[in-house]
């Protein structure tokens, strides 16, 4: 993937030399055309040492993961804030078992940290075989909706980010 980026920079620089103007505007145009060329020749690159996936699609997936996390963080912040301002603190804390679809250690660590950083939830433990998480939820009446929420947001986005997955 790094080689794809270097090829893209080379095409941008080459474009500046062809045009004869050496500024960021012309480099950006060349860089854009480099992205187009990488897209056109992606089948050729997938069979070589340049990687299966285009680097800018990989970057897009990481940005998507970060935005999903920030959105979930904002929603959880609002829910915890509402809970704080209730007259009676009526919470239903629960610890539940979560079956993992992610397999690699970095994916499990990232998912665990995203769950822990989201207010109202906490990763308590990871199963011995790395196939389960034990999660504490501050207030829930429906464990299956919590599991579906994690599967369809964090875990799905983490699986999309994996280069070799």
User: Would you tell me the structural class of the helices and strands?
Assistant: mainly alpha
Spell out the helices and strands N to C. Answer: HHHHEHEEH
Number of helices: 6
Question: Major sheet: size, sense and barrel closure?
Answer: 3 strands, antiparallel
Q: Provide the helix percentage.
A: 55-70%
Strand content: 5-15%
What's the gyration radius in Å?
Answer: 22 Å
* Mean pLDDT metric: 88
The end-to-end span amounts to 15 Å
Q: Strands of the biggest beta sheet: in what spatial order?
A: 1-3-2
Q: Spans of 5+ residues with little confidence (pLDDT < 50)?
A: none
Instruction: Write down the overall geometry.
Output: elongated
The total count of strands amounts to 3
Describe this structure in words.
By secondary structure, the protein is mostly helical. Helix content is 62%, strand content 11%. It has six helices and three strands. The protein has helices at residues 2-19, 24-40, 42-46, 55-84, 105-117, 143-161; strands spanning 94-99, 121-126, 132-137. A three-stranded antiparallel beta sheet has the order 1-3-2. A hairpin with a 5-residue loop joins β2 (121-126) and β3 (132-137). α1 (2-19) packs across α2, α4 runs antiparallel to α6 (143-161) and α5 crosses α6 (143-161). The mean pLDDT is 88.
In short:
By secondary structure, the chain is mostly helical. It has helices at 2-19, 24-40, 42-46, 55-84, 105-117, 143-161, and strands at residues 94-99, 121-126, 132-137.
């Amino acid at each position: 993937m790094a080689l794809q980026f270097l090829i893209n920079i080379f095409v941008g620089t080459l474009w500046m030399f062809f045009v004869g103007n050496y500024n960021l505007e012309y480099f950006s145009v060349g860089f854009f055309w480099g992205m187009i060329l990488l897209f056109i020749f992606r089948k050729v690159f997938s069979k070589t040492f340049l990687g299966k996936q285009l680097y800018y699609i990989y970057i897009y997936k990481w940005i998507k993961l970060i935005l999903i996390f920030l959105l979930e963080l904002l929603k959880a912040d609002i829910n915890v804030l509402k809970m704080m301002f209730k007259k009676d603190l009526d919470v239903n804390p629960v610890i539940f078992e979560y079956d993992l679809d992610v397999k690699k250690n970095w994916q499990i660590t990232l998912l665990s940290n995203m769950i822990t950083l989201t207010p109202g939830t906490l990763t308590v433990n990871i199963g011995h075989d790395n196939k389960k998480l034990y999660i504490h939820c501050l207030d829930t009446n429906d464990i299956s909706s919590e599991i579906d929420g994690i599967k369809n947001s964090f875990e799905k986005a983490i699986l999309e980010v994996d280069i070799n997955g």
